[in-house]
Design goal:
The protein is an all-alpha fold and 94 residues long. It has helices at residues 2-12, 23-41, 50-56, 61-77, 82-88. Helix content is 65%, strand content 0%.
């Protein structure tokens, strides 16, 4: 899981802080991660990977996307660039 979350998940979540994903795109990222986990742990397609997330302490991809977006929006508020600071007030933060 550590290898998956340090090498593969960053690629899946590369632009999630600045790009607004459609529902189907988010689902595809989630499916890719779940299929990878199933392959590593020899799970069948119908078996949930939720317990693996909980057991190993890794967040689901939806949580990672939301956290990255929030972190990015907050970092804009303290940016040296005045335009970015102004635009940051229009980004909704969960």
């Amino acid at each position: 899981m550590k290898l998956l979350y340090t090498n593969c998940v960053p690629i899946l979540t590369y632009a999630c802080a600045v790009k607004e994903y459609f529902a189907y795109e988010m689902q595809r990222c989630n499916t890719a991660l779940n299929h990878s986990m199933r392959k590593i742990f020899s799970y069948n397609r119908w078996e949930s990977t939720r317990i693996l997330h909980e057991q190993f302490g890794y967040d689901p991809i939806e949580v990672l996307f939301a956290r990255a977006k929030t972190k990015y929006a907050k970092s804009l508020l303290t940016s040296n660039n005045s335009v970015l600071r102004h635009l940051a007030h229009f980004i909704p933060v969960e």
